[in-house]
């Protein structure tokens, strides 16, 4: 900042911070008090200032939990960017602003009076809205030129991220179970149920003694999966019949459990395999591309903003 510009800032600060308060006495005569502080400086950005009242107005737009210091830093960043826009001839003209607002009114089917009424409900005057919208348009224009256009994505980067972060795209664990079912018909008598249980226990003993499980399934199993040699295929544990899921939860591949009493009969189960499937690359390619693109833009924006800060005179007095 030049010495002349700094003198201007100092003069502005002096005028801002000191004011003469005039009070009316009970007899109607004027009484003057000494100087009182009506506002205070919280930041200097090159040849511009940010006051506490500016900050407080900004805080009113934020959630109650907003950090005052962080909000001030954001205000400083905006001033730096608006200055950069001016230097690069990227100001938004009145005509451009008028057209943009007219388009918003048209898309929302509002005339001028209705538009101002809608703004009033949000606590804004038309001039306040124009000022804020002009700033948004300017910052967007600036962002597109200095950040967005410098970011490019590469298919190899996307694929590499997928390969390095496969666990991030994993699905819930699945188990493959094969079972033999000794069925129990509906409305079976207690004797029939006991007989089916004994048969299942005898088959389990034969399996334990080393007989081939698949051969026994083909010979003795009932139910709809008998034709597939009792293979249930891969299922999420949550999709298993609860009794089978409970019996299988501590099994390792190749281990058996049973007989397990279920609604349709007695099951002998063997855990064949466990897997954690991963979503295919083609299914998550767009998701990864978006993620990496946003990361790159964020990094580019931060680097560019740091350059603006390095080339500027900033005083944070909060």
Describe the structure.
There is one protein chain. This protein has 318 residues and is of the alpha+beta class. It folds into 4 domains: 1-67, no CATH class; 88-146, Porin chaperone SurA, peptide-binding domain (Triger factor/SurA peptide-binding fold, Orthogonal Bundle), CATH 1.10.4030; 149-168 and 281-318; 171-275, Chitinase A, domain 3, CATH 3.10.50. 51% of the residues lie in helices and 19% in strands. The chain is built from 11 helices and 9 strands. The chain has helices spanning 3-17, 52-59, 68-87, 94-107, 112-121, 126-146, 155-164, 190-208, 213-220, 242-248, 281-310; strands spanning 18-24, 30-37, 41-45, 48-51, 174-183, 231-236, 256-262, 265-275, 314-316. The strands form 3 sheets. The protein has a 4-stranded antiparallel sheet with strand order 6-5-8-7. Strands 4-3-9 form a 3-stranded antiparallel sheet, with helices on both faces. A two-stranded antiparallel sheet has the order 1-2. A hairpin with a 2-residue loop joins strand 3 (41-45) and strand 4. It is elongated.
């Amino acid at each position: 900042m030049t010495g002349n510009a700094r003198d201007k800032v100092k003069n502005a600060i002096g005028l801002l911070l000191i004011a003469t308060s005039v009070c009316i006495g009970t007899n109607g005569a004027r009484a003057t008090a000494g100087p009182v502080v009506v506002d205070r400086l919280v930041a200097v950005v090159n040849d511009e200032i940010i006051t506490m009242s500016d900050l407080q107005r900004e805080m009113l737009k934020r959630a109650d939990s907003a950090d005052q210091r962080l909000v001030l830093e954001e205000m400083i960043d905006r001033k730096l960017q608006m200055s950069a826009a001016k230097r690069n001839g990227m100001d938004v003209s009145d005509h451009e602003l008028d057209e943009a607002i007219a388009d918003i009114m048209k898309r929302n089917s509002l005339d001028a009076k209705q538009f101002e009424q809608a703004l009033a409900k949000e606590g804004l005057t038309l001039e306040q809205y124009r000022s804020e919208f002009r700033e948004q348009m300017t910052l967007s224009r600036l962002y597109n030129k200095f950040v967005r256009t410098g970011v490019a994505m590469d298919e190899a980067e996307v694929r590499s991220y997928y390969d390095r972060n496969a666990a991030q795209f994993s699905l819930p664990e699945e188990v493959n179970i094969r079972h033999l079912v000794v069925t129990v018909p509906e409305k079976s008598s207690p004797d029939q149920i006991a007989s089916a249980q004994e048969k299942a226990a005898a088959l389990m003993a034969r399996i334990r003694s080393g007989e081939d499980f698949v051969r026994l399934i083909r010979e003795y199993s009932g139910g709809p999966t008998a034709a597939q040699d009792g293979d249930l295929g891969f299922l999420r544990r949550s999709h298993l019949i609860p009794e089978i899921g409970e019996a299988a939860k501590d099994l390792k591949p190749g281990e058996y459990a049973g007989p397990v009493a279920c609604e349709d009969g007695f099951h002998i189960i063997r855990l064949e395999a466990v897997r954690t499937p991963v979503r295919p690359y083609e299914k998550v390619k767009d998701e990864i591309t978006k993620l990496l693109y946003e990361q790159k833009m964020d990094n580019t924006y931060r680097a560019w903003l740091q350059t603006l800060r390095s080339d500027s005179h900033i005083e944070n007095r909060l």
